[in-house]
Design brief:
The chain is an alpha/beta fold and 337 residues long. The protein folds into 2 domains: 2-147, Rossmann fold (3-Layer(aba) Sandwich), CATH 3.40.50.1970; 150-331, Up-down Bundle (Dehydroquinate synthase-like, alpha domain). Helices cover 48% and strands 15% of the residues. α6 (151-168) runs parallel beside α11 (239-256). The longest helix has 21 residues, at 188-208.
Length: 337
């Protein structure tokens, strides 16, 4: 079993602590436990973005204390992006930091969330406002886990893949277009290549700027407006769905400034639609509400909202002078028809 080979190859004596969302635990825990040292501590939490809270962090830490988990422990984040963010943050703060391993079971986590060392939880004010940079000891991707994903959840992960292609690799964007049918059909060889290339792209970016002091910020393409939509809609949409809509709105900002050509913007829209991602909201949002949410995002610096826009595929730029009026006009492109 690939998963077992990867975990046992670490050759590190460790006490295993599994932190998994309940749905993933029900589906896959029996495959993970035999790969771990005997008698792992298993902690589960309710599936969904609502579990990314300080209340849940405190509950998990109390359970670690009850289990007498020591500094040599390794936390195994088992699940999608929520599990990785939550378990990674718990690992970052427990005993001032213990090692952790990412075992992503969603496509979004495999191509993006599990790579890079960002962990965090949400506040009422916004998404991921409390967190820590805490690099995993390893990221172990077993594509067999993806077979149980619902079509909507699988498609949501593809938004981050398109994002990476648009900001870093024009040939990879061409590849998405050429293999869209096989991607949606979950062809094993195609999906393995997709995951591997995404991990390569993100790892290179993160290695140059681990704590997002500058260059790593290009990974936020689609996320300024995307995070605002996610928060405003009460996390009813998947993160990847909001990123897709965020990319489209932010492409409109770039088009309006004469940086991005309309054919390239339409190309991204068409690809997202082919991959099963939304290209319009199901319900209207108020531009003023979106702008207000953007202003409390963690990407705000010196009171300026930071956006990542693209001048062309593979040529991103950071922009700090976008106005509320520009955002309002850009949102028209993703409002319900």
């Amino acid at each position: 079993m690939m998963l077992q080979k990867c975990i046992t190859s670490q050759r590190i004596p460790w006490q295993a602590v599994v932190v998994a969302d309940q749905t993933v635990a029900d589906l896959h825990l029996d495959r993970l436990v035999p790969c771990l040292p005997p008698s792992p501590v298993v902690l589960t939490f309710q599936t969904g973005e609502a579990s990314k809270s300080l209340t849940r962090v405190e509950q998990l830490c109390e359970q670690l204390a009850d289990a007498r988990v020591e500094r040599q422990a390794v936390v195994v984040a088992f699940g999608g992006g929520v599990a990785g963010d939550l378990a990674g943050f718990v690992a970052a703060v427990w005993l001032r930091g213990v090692r952790f391993v990412q075992v992503p079971t969603s496509l979004l986590a495999a191509v993006d969330a599990a790579v890079g060392g960002k962990t965090g939880v949400n506040l009422r004010a916004g998404k991921n406002l409390i967190g820590a940079f805490h690099q995993p000891l390893a990221v172990i991707v077993d594509t067999d886990f993806l077979q149980t994903l619902a079509a909507r959840d699988f498609a949501a992960g593809l938004a981050e893949s398109v994002k990476h292609a648009v900001i870093r690799d024009p040939e990879f964007l061409n590849w998405h277009e050429a293999h869209a049918g096989e991607i949606v059909g979950r062809d094993p060889a195609v999906i393995s290549h997709l995951i591997a290339r995404n991990c390569e792209i993100k790892a290179v970016v993160v290695a140059r700027d681990e704590r997002e002091a500058g260059p790593r910020a290009i990974l936020n393409y689609g996320h300024t407006i995307g995070h605002a939509l996610e928060h405003l809609l009460g996390y009813e949409l998947r993160h990847g769905e909001c990123v897709a809509l965020g990319m489209l709105a932010e492409n409109e900002l770039a088009c309006a400034r004469g940086w991005l050509g309309r054919p390239e913007a339409d190309r991204v829209r068409n690809l997202l639609a082919r991959l099963g991602l939304p290209v319009a909201l199901a319900q209207p949002v108020q531009p003023d509400d979106v702008w207000a949410a953007c202003q409390v995002d963690k990407k705000v610096r010196d009171a300026a909202v930071h956006f990542v826009l693209v001048r062309s595929v593979g040529d991103p730029m950071r922009v700090t002078d976008i106005s509320a009026a520009e955002v309002a006009r850009a949102l028209q492109a993703i409002q319900p028809p």
